Structure formats: C-alpha cells, structure tokens
Amino acid sequence: MEFQDWNVVTFDKRSQKQPAASVKSSQLGVTKPRKTSLNENKIFRNDNIKNIENEEDTFVIKKVSLSVAKKIAQARCEKKLTQKELAFKLSLPLKTINDYESSKAVPNDMILSKIEKILGTRVRETR
User: Fold this and answer.
1) C-alpha distances in angstroms, 85 versus 54, 67, 97, 98, 108?
2) Long-range pairs for 4-7 at CB < 8 Å and ≥24 separation?
3) Is 34 a member of any domain?
4) What are phi and psi of 47, to 5 degrees?
5) Would 111 be classed as within a structural domain?
6) Is residue 73 part of a domain?
7) In the chain, how many domains are there?
8) Where residue 79 sits, what CATH number does that domain have?
9) Cβ contacts of 53 within 8 Å, gap of 6 or more
C-alpha cells in the first residue's frame, strides 16, 4: 500500500512565509477593531445626516453659455450643415451637438476645438 502525502506544496520564487497559525496578531502589531453597539452606530449616522443637512455649500455644474451655443448654431447654419451632419463630421453623437446648441452640455475644450475647426470660426468666449 502506497503512502500519499497531503501536505501543501507551493512553488513560489518569493521568500517562504511562515504559516498564519504560527504568527500571533499581537506579534504583528495588529489590533482588532472595537465592536460598537447598534445604538452607537445609529447615533453616528444621525450626526452625519445632521451635518450634511446643515451644510450650506452649493455646487453648480458649469454649462455652455448661451452666447457660445448661439455662435455654434449660427456658424453651423452659415456652413449649411445640419446637427446630424456636424455630429457625423465630429464623430460625436447627435445628442452632444444638440446639448451644446441648447446650452445643456458641460463644456469640453477638446469638443469645442473640434467644432471650431470644422466650422472655421471661434465659438468660445474670449477672456
């Protein structure tokens, strides 16, 4: 009858590590997190909610200005292009051009520079 060895053999070029059972967590300086009761968690969450409600910061997402939107539409019409044709030339979805002309889009310098190149005119506001 043959003897079968069930010990795990690993082939690794890195240095050999000690088995996890032989190293105590106190030797590694690892501390276990403190267990909190359910009531403490509720208090903590309620405080966070109150802090969020009391904040007065308002965040405004910058949109394309109305003057830029009008310049894009006017230049497109002068070139006798539809929104669909302009979108095709720019390799962009039709919705993107529509959003830029209705001043709903978040300005992207790359897209604006592509639009300027195709339309042959400056559409961005000068600073």
Assistant:
1) 49, 22, 10, 12, 20
2) none
3) no
4) -65, -40
5) yes
6) yes
7) 1
8) 1.10.260.40
9) none
- Does residue 103 belong to any structural domain of this protein? yes
Q: What predicted TM-score, i.e. pTM, was given to this entire model?
A: 0.54
Say whether 10 sits in a helix, a strand or coil. Answer: coil
Alpha carbon separation from 28 to 4, 19, 31, 33, 35 (Å, rounded)? 35, 13, 9, 15, 21
Residue linked to tokens 């910058």: 62
What pLDDT shows up at residue 92?
Answer: 93
Amino acid at 13: K
Q: d(Cα 60, Cα 7) in Å, to the nearest integer?
A: 62
Q: Give me the percent of the chain exceeding a pLDDT of 90.
A: 40
Give the chain's length: 127
Calpha distance 47→68 (Å, rounded):
44
Q: What is the pLDDT of residues 67-118, one digit of tens each?
A: 999 999 999 999 999 999 999 999 999 999 999 999 999 889 999 999 999 9
